[in-house]
Amino acid sequence: MGEYKRPVVSVVGAGNVGEHVANLIAIKEIANVRMFDLARQTEDKVYEIVKGKALDIKQMAAAIGCDVEVDGYTVTVDGEGYEALAGSDIVVVTAGFPRRPGMSRDDLLSKNVGIIRTISERIAQYAPEAIVIVVSNPVDVLTYAALKLTGFSPKRVMGMAGVLDTARFKAFLSMELKVSVQNINAYVLGSHGDDMVPLLSVSNVGGEPLTKLIPEDRLKEIVERTKFGGGEIVSLMGTSAYHAPGASVVEMVEAIINDKKEILPCSVYLEGDVAEFYDADDVCIGIPVKLGANGIEEILKLEFTPEEKDLWKSSVKSVKSGIDRIKELGLI
């Protein structure tokens, strides 16, 4: 009997989201975790924060009886220190540059595509067989960039977007109907942002359509709250959400590691007959996919109502404009 080899998930970017991804993977004993991030320098000291966070999570795991390896690696902005990506089954990319006052959208895109470029090159170099999950925003555009910059098969590069948006939608529906989220079936597709598309036509609770359970005006309010779910948390906390995004990433990781064949809405590259079906070519955008050991094993084709079709077209246009812009700026 051969020796069991625990899967390895590498998390690039150990900010709030990356830290929570690593934490949940350790708690669930899904895989060994490797964390990567820059050092933080003050006037008199260099802090290797990622190593401290990894050690803290490892000790947390020990405290609750979880056997998992958690290691931290300090990297540089020009891509040094990524050798430990070797052997990764999945690489989760949460690294990104937050928008600062006075920074234009093009400045932000340029900064973040630059970060994705360095990371993508290192993933291709050290972990050429890995599956890549992009979390950094704007996620649909950066997923497209990661796909092109790694040169990987579209089946192995995806963005986390619809899983989080769907979780928020389910949470609000559960609060409204006083019913378990496990009885709620819902999808939120399209771009991760104001142009997301909640599919009310197929969403139901225990088989009963949402449109029969919730008055139209109230359902519209819940949809709007879902669209601005991230913004609501920023306004309350002064920073972006991280518990729900972290858990959403781990749901995807678990589906892949355990070969669950789970249907989840992820940002994926559309081409061929799928692109023709959705009238969206050469774009990464949120669509229900079957996630398993090989990554994206199938892309589902869902019929839209005329109203959903209009929302979908707006969503595609929004993402396309971002992709076109990074091409115009010569970033990919």
Describe the structure concisely for a colleague:
The protein has helices spanning about 15-25, 50-65, 105-125, 140-150, 160-175, 210-215, 215-225, 230-235, 245-255, 270-280, 305-330; strands spanning about 10, 30-40, 40, 45, 70-75, 90-95, 130-135, 155-160, 185, 190, 195-200, 205, 210, 260-270, 285-290, 295-300. The chain has about 325 residues and is an alpha/beta fold.
Please characterize this protein's 3D structure.
With 332 residues, the protein is of the alpha/beta class. The strands form five sheets. Strands 5-2-1-6-7-8 form a six-stranded parallel β-sheet, with helices on both faces. The protein has a three-stranded antiparallel β-sheet with strand order 9-12-13. Strand 10 and strand 11 form a beta hairpin. Helix 1 runs parallel beside helix 2 and helix 1 crosses helix 9. The chain is globular and about 60 Å long. The termini are far apart. The model has no long low-confidence stretch (mean pLDDT 95).
Question: Secondary-structure blueprint of this entry?
Answer:
Elements lengths: L7 E5 L3 H12 L4 E7 L1 E2 L4 E2 L1 H15 L6 E6 L14 E4 L11 H22 L4 E4 L4 H12 L6 E3 L2 H16 L6 E2 L2 E3 L5 E3 L5 E2 L2 E2 H4 L2 H12 L1 H9 L5 H15 L4 E9 L1 H7 L4 E10 L2 E5 L6 H23 L4
